[in-house]
Amino acid sequence: MVFTRGGVDESIHGVHLAVVDADGKLIASCGDPDLVTFPRSSSKPVQALPLALAAPELPSDELAIACASHAGTPEHLTAVMRLLERSGSTVADLRCGTHPPFDAVVAAELIRTGERPTPLHHNCSGKHAGMLLSCVLNGWPKEGYTEHGHPLQVRIRELHAELGGVSLEAVEAGTDGCSVPAFALPLGAAARIFAGLARPSGEYAEALERIFGAMTEHPFLVAGPGRLDTTLMPLVPGLVAKMGAEAFYGMGLRETPRGPLGIAFKIMDGGERARAHVALAVLEALGIPLTPEMQALAPATLHNWAGREVGGVRVELPLVWA
Amino acid sequence: MVFTRGGVDESIHGVHLAVVDADGKLIASCGDPDLVTFPRSSSKPVQALPLALAAPELPSDELAIACASHAGTPEHLTAVMRLLERSGSTVADLRCGTHPPFDAVVAAELIRTGERPTPLHHNCSGKHAGMLLSCVLNGWPKEGYTEHGHPLQVRIRELHAELGGVSLEAVEAGTDGCSVPAFALPLGAAARIFAGLARPSGEYAEALERIFGAMTEHPFLVAGPGRLDTTLMPLVPGLVAKMGAEAFYGMGLRETPRGPLGIAFKIMDGGERARAHVALAVLEALGIPLTPEMQALAPATLHNWAGREVGGVRVELPLVWA
């Protein structure tokens, strides 16, 4: 996809994309659907699965925050604190590190008051709180819960393979921005994970259904003000969507002309600004009509600081049908 | 160039690059040296040339701020104000628009004090102040100085063609983030502009020499704390360098084994994080030894929020020698 200025193509983002049906069969692609890459935070529904399995009564807002890359608003922090307390943990147990909250208003408020951000503000703090509760409920030590060899992380790697329909050897490991393992797998396998959220089946069906419900019922908790997951999910019936760093995106669609589908894509260069444009283009290509509210999430024109129109966005998504 | 995580390539940035010698002859390239693209703020030395020609006695710090994409520190604002006063102008005459200062410390200070950013904080305010003085000294109206048809902008377009060694028709026009025309030209032509700064000749030689002197004597004014132009220029004898938005970079090198050279490159996707890595790789390929201080500007390893090493950067710059 291309960002233009005047009549000239200024910057170009390459896209790799895979679409699978409810049986996990590849039905369409763009670029290389076998590209092995990191879903990053798009893995959070998988990382929350051991929690969903161990805590069938967990309130859905707490399950949602465990799947979130949140913006650090008070509403997000409250949900994280509640989840944290369930395992008898405190902020001091979180191993995610600290960054200023994603939400600009909250970030400015911290600067104004002279308050420092804490690990609670880290966009992954809900995931970490969920992991701590997972450990307690499964009888694993909380100590070292972020390490590659910890039973929770070993289990999460297995779940990536199981839900992605690939061998354990096909799941490569790195370390994420929040210090837990990040797993890389082929795009088609990541799409299968999201198809599994759209139409849960097998031994994890009930837990996956609760994760789908939690994320779609609490889109604000999953991300935050103005962020794509939060704004897009309520506009598309039966859509579960989760952003990952470096411009990864996963979507599970319950209702399409082709039945439930799973979609995963990666902007080659990690260019986050391309994500919303590509997400809408693939939804449209899959038969989801784009409403004006949806189109407003990916404006086709670019304006400068003085409000003048200076360019546009041209989406080229040459889907190849399998 | 590739950003890796664990052992996996995570994100990839494509590069187009041109290197020309002092005669403007292409001597090396990567990707497409004929790519027509916008230098954006890398055009500022050309945009300041009418000012340098009309104001031979202008202090070098004011000429430097006219060439700057500055960070909005008090030192930058003072220089802009002085330049603005020379044309009897005020902040109200600036047509650049307003954005929060690039410098995080200054931006936070504004938030703390509740002060709003003004057009002075816009990274291009020095260029605009210079343009206003250009108008007064050349007898052109200040009114409408940002418009494509204004005599100043017409002249700047001609200068792009002249210094780039291309026809006027080869210079395409868009509008920049600060509302003045942005001109697009082939990468090789942009490299010629920087070769002309490294070894000025012809009718503009004296003014180009003063621009070179101003930028290299005041690297802080040209950008700001931690920004590449500011940090790199003092480390490489005879280097003039200027960043442009969407990951453009122009460098003029006075002293290399091949004599004075001009370099221009564009990260295809506009990925700013790749710029320093590519700049160092091309300097090394052109025979400039990389010191530890230079290498520190483009770290080969990536760390996460908790300070853990999570990945690296692999620079692939397959230079083709002409």
UniProtKB/TrEMBL annotation, chains A, B:
A Pfam entry, by short name: Asparaginase_II
Superkingdom: Bacteria
PANTHER family: L-ASPARAGINASE, PUTATIVE (AFU_ORTHOLOGUE AFUA_3G11890)-RELATED (PTHR42110:SF1)
Protein name as it appears in the record: Asparaginase
